[in-house]
């Protein structure tokens, strides 16, 4: 383990050796076809007895179908991992989401569907031409809301799972408010007032952004459509008390190669580096300082994920992870051979949206490669002080995510806990201590892939003091392929 200080010291002395090897990093992209169910007995340190609840995680469990490699991990079938904490113990279970596509391909033992990120059916372009069928892979996020456990994928309806068994039950349509095949994004935001806010994108020359609000019973109480000009590729959004905010990435979409069976839909998206990002501000109610949709412009590169947003007098502050350009997927490339040095690092930026002057000011918060930001759940849409993210070991180069990074946005101080050289981290989740008074009083829970033994570990850190190192390391009997998103609920499911 290294702290920020020791790492900075190394850079002073210009030690530029890589903190990882590509071979180690590639190990986290092997399929895990097995499903497990066991109490974790390989524990170093101590699980805090007051840490009680269930962590759900989602991500591609399969990177191949019967040995036939997928073109991109985002095309992989969703697999839910569940870690339950109770009385200082932890239980693990994983299950594949039994989507229609997963069941069909497992039965056929071959790829039957094209993936959005470039996976093609065998047989070249002739086998793929004019095939626009989507496979809902339910692999991006998993949330427990209104007594429903939902596996989410941004281009289609959720899958409903049994939280006790992880058994797949059916598609969720929220009493018919959602129609068959209708999108429901994988990036809901939970307004601490007890409202889950989510969106859907229907791209076109005019894009429709649908905003959903759900009550604590898991019912959709509001569904509103908004038309905005131009093609939108939007993965995430942020909320404040009064607004939903979307960053419309500057991209161009040419669907012809996709239609002709030459490549996946996402491979037809090209970032327009010199074009501005449009910031779409949509009022959540009619009782807001601005009543109509407002669009501002700025230079922001490409954004997958935002950290948070809040209102401050005449401004909305938005914190986001910005890429100078999108790491483009090419039809004949191999994602496992990514050259990190050739890409610019995703970095934390703060945007000040001035609603009176219609101006945007941008401020770089930190140069470090960082992704998968998270915050205290009670501060979503509100002023906040601490953000946590997965980050690179080095502070300036683009590199795999090997560390957990904490930024104090008030004082500017930063902390780093690194798993380099052989560890690789996923999305951290902040779990507040029950009845905590301070914003950072709680734990960071993260899945770490350890290339040394090709297994994954669940690591618990003290969010107030990352430099203290691991409070507990829970060794799994296997690895978990690199995942995407997840969530924590204080409810116990075993
Ligand atoms: Fe995401």
Automatic annotation (TrEMBL):
One protein family per Pfam: RPE65
Top-level lineage group: Bacteria
InterPro entries linked: Carotenoid_Oase
Record keywords: Iron, Metal-binding, Oxidoreductase
Co-factor(s): Fe(2+)
Key word Oxidoreductase present: yes
Family: Belongs to the carotenoid oxygenase family.
PANTHER family in UniProt: BETA-CAROTENE DIOXYGENASE (PTHR10543), CAROTENOID 9,10(9',10')-CLEAVAGE DIOXYGENASE 1 (PTHR10543:SF89)
Protein name: Carotenoid oxygenase family protein
